[in-house]
Amino acid sequence: MAINISITVADMVKYPFLPQARQYIAKTDLDFQAIIELPIIRDRAKQRISASYSLAKRLYTETSKQFDVEIASYPLAIMLVSGTEDAY
Is residue 9 part of a domain? Predict the structure, then answer.
């Protein structure tokens, strides 16, 4: 029996690894090329990486209304970190 849980965009911002976040981005005009080329998404991905090295891990503020940027920057940050091949 499958459980259907309603996930909001705000939830996807907080938990961008959820499958629903991937589906959300797929429905936008953001294709892979746009995600890697848009400076606002690229800069946010870099901020996510930098924040992961600090003790203050507040990555998202409730006042941010750029949900698409928040959600799209997560997979880009993962790709950038993976490319370094640094285990840390």
Answer: no
Domain count for the chain: 1
pLDDT, tens only, 27-42: 888 888 888 888 999 9
Report pTM: 0.69
Residue ranges making up the domain that contains 25: 15-84
Burial of 83 (0-12, 13-18, 19+ CB in 10 A): exposed
Query: For residue 75, what are the contacts with CB-CB under 8 A and spacing of at least 6?
Result: 16, 22, 25, 35
Dist CA 37 CA 42 (whole Å): 7
Indicate whether 80 belongs to any domain.
Answer: yes
